Structure formats: structure tokens, C-alpha cells
Amino acid sequence: MTEFILNHRPVRSNAAPGTALLDVIRYQEHLPGTKIGCREGDCGACTVLVGTLREDRVEYRSMTSCLLAMANVHGKHIVTVEGLTDELPHGAGVERLNPVQQAMVDQGATQCGICTPGFVVSLAGCSLSPEPVTKELAVRAMDGNICRCTGYKSIERAAEAVAGQLAGKDEQDPVEWAVAHGFVPGYFKGIAERLKHIAKQATVVNPAASVLGGGTDLYVQKHDAMLHAAIHPLADDPALKGIRLEGGQCIIGGGTVAGELLDSKELRGFFPNLENQLLLVSSTPIRNMGTVAGNFVNASPIGDLTAIFIALDSTITLSTGTGRGNGHGRSLKLKDLYLGYKQLDKSPEEIVTSVRFKVPGKGTRFHFEKVSKRTYLDIANVNSAIRLEVDGDVIREAHASGGGVAATPKYLANTSAFLAGKELVPTSIREAIAVMNDEIAPISDVRGTADYKRLLLRQLFFAHFLELFPERFKLKELA
Ligand SMILES: Cc1cc2nc3c(=O)[nH]c(=O)nc-3n(C[C@H](O)[C@H](O)[C@H](O)COP(=O)(O)OP(=O)(O)OC[C@H]3O[C@@H](n4cnc5c(N)ncnc54)[C@H](O)[C@@H]3O)c2cc1C
Ligand code: FES
Ligand code: FES
User: Fold this and answer.
1) Do residue 110 and residue 172 come from a single domain?
2) 353 plus 293 within the same structural domain
């Protein structure tokens, strides 16, 4: 039994835990405002806000309901477009439009309307955010929403108008402010208290069950099989959450989502360009769902988080059994998890509870690069990350990764070893690229020919050094 609050209504649903929330919303709860587009997380037509109780507050994040399993919905507040306005009695419509809807109307930002509820929900989420909202952030909130007929300029203007109205938002208590200013109805004020009364579900350990993080890979790859699968949900397991510093290590719970990495003040402090780099990973709603462990275990050779954490020389912790903390169990370098295409040094019962890496020091430099057909919301043709420990003119230690150039996410072991002890001069980089070419084995496929991928990785490798040491390197000296 999944218990949650859908807009203002409590719901107890018997839908199988693998059912996509989208289907429950539309076909069991009869709320057709949430639309079906791609069913693969790509279009945003099905976007809902998911409220999670954090002590006395509810934190709202946008998610795509087509990939959201009912197993991950228990104890949540789910907000669809219908829940953003006060309904008149007897199905007589709504009293007035929400300011976001009004801005879309004023700017002529809708035509056929199939995408509009998704845009409205994503944008309305800004009013509930504890961060200040600029026009850029309002536009960013819609980076998972695609419109095929209106054109984006009018939607951007609507976002700008909304951001203007949110300028005075109270970041201490965004829900109170959003209610007072008509962005969400009054019932939002009681949600935190109501969520506290939903009992947690007991974890039933079933070794045959599919381990589920955010579902953003599983529901794309095997949507139908998931519907009837036994599920072991981990998205809300507190033992797999959080980012902490301990004994010179940064330890990140396996259930941490990419959006939480992006929001982390610690990580942003360590890696000043992390925000721009993580924005290249999927989209806001997918980053709000997809976990680091899911990225590692999915074992895609072009997984972005995998490339990043391999280059950070990270260690993962694998654990069986319940009640595990995110630091206890068998340790393994992330780079050694991959034995062959989608073959892992991991038993089916083992769960990735955490990933950890050495806290960067004064001489640490880190960079991530990705090439894809579209800049945003696209998987990589080739990606690469590098971590260097630099002492004056010398590279003391190097760890580099390359995605899309082998059957597995690739730790560039020989290239990394070659760079250690080398001077930071163009010859070192050119020679390292020769080493790199000998240790990769790209194949030709829909994302490019083998030669093209070799060329891309070389360019990304140059980009690491051009970005990290602009005062030392010029492209014409490297190429
Ligand atoms: C529209 C869209 C865009 C995307 N764009 C990108 C992109 O730009 N870059 C990118 O790298 N990826 C991208 N992805 C892929 C996906 O979002 C990521 O790989 C994400 O990190 C997967 O995490 P998850 O929690 O959703 O995994 P799930 O789908 O829940 O699980 C994936 C696999 O991991 C296993 N698993 C999950 N958690 C654990 C755990 N703790 N321990 C052991 N096994 C576990 C599952 O059993 C399953 O085998 C995209 C996906 C979508 C739908
Ligand atoms: S239907 Fe396209 S993202 Fe869900
Ligand atoms: S209004 Fe038709 S797809 Fe956006």
C-alpha cells in the first residue's frame, strides 16, 4: 500500500510498487493535466513536484512522473498542475489562474498545450525553492521541458515575468510566502504536518527484487518489466544519503542524487566549476531523481557521474544486509568495478552504499568535459575528467577518465601513470596523448565513428589543460 498526498487529497494506492506514478495520476486518480509525451524522461510533459519532509519543512523538487515508481512515492506530497490552483466546488473550474499560468497566457507561451502543464509545474517549483530566483534560474528550472510548437522566446519571457514576481520571496519560509502570494493554494501550509502522520514502510528484503534508485535508467531500459517486478527501493534510504567530510575524505551516500551534488556547498567549494559541469548532466528533474550509485551500477561507458568519480580516484563501499551505514562494507576503487561491458565486480545482493574521495588540497585541480549532440539533456558522445595534484611546475599525481572510448567507463591508467612526475609543459601533454591512444578502444556506433571518438577524447584532454592552466597553455602549442 502506497500512502501519499496528491495535491490536497490523501491517497492510499494498491498499485504495484513498480507502476509509474504518471499512470496512477491519470488513470486511477483521474487528473489528466499531467501529460504523456515520451515516457523516457526526455520531454517534461509529465513533470510533477515531489515534496519530501525534511524535519519540519517540505522540500519540493521537480521530477518526471513517467519514470517515478510508486515505490518511491510513499510518504511524499505529489503536486500536479491541478494542485497549483484553488478549485471551485462541483468541478466548476478554478477561481483564478496561478501567477505562473497567468504569465504563460500573458506572454502567449502556449499553443497546442501538451507541454504547458509541465512548464507550469517546473516554473511554479521556483516559488517553493529556498534559494533566490533569477531569470536564469527560472529558465534553468525548465531545462527538462520541451515544447514543439510555441517557440521558446515567449516561454522565456514568462519565466522572466515569474522571476520578477519572485524577487521578494522569503527564503526562510518559501511555502508561507508562496501561499500568501497566490503561487500555491493555502492547503500547502498543512502538508508538513500531514506528511508526519504517514507511517514509514517496513523494508522487506527480497534478494530477488530489483534494486531501484531513482529509476531513470531502469524505467527507460525496461519499463514494462518494472511494472510487475519485486522492488527494493533505495531512493529514500537514509543510510544512503548525505555528503559529509570525515578523516580527510569526502563521503557521499550512494543514494545521493545529482541535484544534491549540484546544491552541495562543500562540493562547490572544492570544485569551483562543478555547477557548470553538472548542468551538462541530464536535466533538472532527472538530476532530482538519478542517484550516483545508479549511474555507477548502470555501467554505461558514457555515464557522466562515473567519469567524474573515476577521475577523483574514488572508492565505493559495497554492502549486503540491512541497517548498513554509508561507509561500512567492502571497499573497491570505482575504476575496478568494471570488468567488461556491463559486467561488474559486484554480486547482485551488493548495494553501493557510498562513494568517497580524498578531499582536494591546495595543489588539486579537477576538470570535466563532455561532448554531446545537444549541450543539455543529452548523453555524451565522449566525456572525460581529470584530477591532478600539482606542485609548482610538476604534476605529482594524475587520474584521468574517458567515457565512450571503451566497453566500460575507462580509467586511463597508463596515461595517468605517465603524467605523474612530468612537467606542466606542452610536450608532456602531447606525449600523454600518444599513451592515451594506445589504451583506448572506441568502436563505431550511432554516436560516432571510432576515429571521431579518438579525436574527441584528444580534444577534451587538451581542454582539461587549457581550462585548468590558461596561463601556461595555448591550443596551437598543444595540437
Ligand atoms: C532523460 C534522461 C537523461 C539522462 N542524461 C544523462 C546524462 O546526461 N548523463 C548520465 O550520465 N546519465 C544520464 N541519464 C541516465 C541516468 O539518469 C543516470 O545514469 C542516473 O544516475 C541513474 O540513477 P538512478 O538512481 O535513476 O538509477 P536506476 O535506474 O534506479 O538504477 C540503475 C541501475 O543501478 C542499480 N542501482 C541503483 N541504485 C543502486 C545502489 N545503491 N546499489 C546497487 N545498485 C543500484 C539498479 O538496480 C539498476 O541496475 C539520463 C537519463 C534520462 C532518463
Ligand atoms: S512523458 Fe516525457 S518526460 Fe515523462
Ligand atoms: S505548446 Fe505545443 S508543444 Fe508546447
Assistant:
1) yes
2) yes
Q: Which residues contact 350 (CB under 8 A, 6 or more apart)?
A: 318, 319, 320, 329, 330
Ligand 1 pocket: which of 288, 298, 309 to mutate (most atoms within 8 A of CB)? 298
Q: Which three cell numbers stand for residue 458?
A: 584528444
Q: Yes or no: say if 185 and 85 are a contact pair by the CB < 8 Å rule.
A: yes
Residues 381 and 366 sit within 8 Å (Cβ to Cβ):
no
Given a contact cutoff of 8 angstroms between Cβ atoms, the answer to whether 450 and 443 are in contact is yes
Are both 351 and 369 inside the same structural domain?
no
- Tell me how far apart the alpha carbons of residues 124 and 141 are, in angstroms, rounded to a whole number: 9
pLDDT digits (tens, 9 = 90+) for 265-281: 999 999 999 999 999 99
HSE toward the beta carbon, residue 105, CA cutoff 13 A: 7
Asked if 60 and 192 sit in the same domain, the reply is yes
Same domain, yes or no: 317 and 390: no
User: What digits encode the pLDDT tens for the residues 330-381?
Assistant: 999 999 999 999 999 999 999 999 999 999 999 999 999 999 988 888 889 9
Question: What one-letter code names the amino acid at 370?
Answer: K
Domain extent at residue 416: 364-478
Give the integer Cα–Cα distance in Å for 398 and 385.
Answer: 11
* 352 and 375 inside one domain: no
- Ligand 1 pocket, residue 317 CB under 6 Å: no
Same domain, 178 and 259: no
- CB 325 within 8 Å of CB 254: no
Q: Residue 7 Cα, ligand 2 centroid: separation in angstroms?
A: 20
Shared-domain flag, residues 8 and 140: yes
Cβ contacts of 389-394, under 8 Å, gap ≥ 24? 389/361, 389/363, 389/364, 390/363, 390/364, 390/365, 390/424, 391/363, 393/423, 393/424, 393/425, 394/421, 394/422, 394/423, 394/424
Contact 210, 232 (CB under 8 A): yes
Whether the CB of 282 sits within 6 Å of ligand 2: no
Domain-terminating residue out of 201, 218, 251: 201
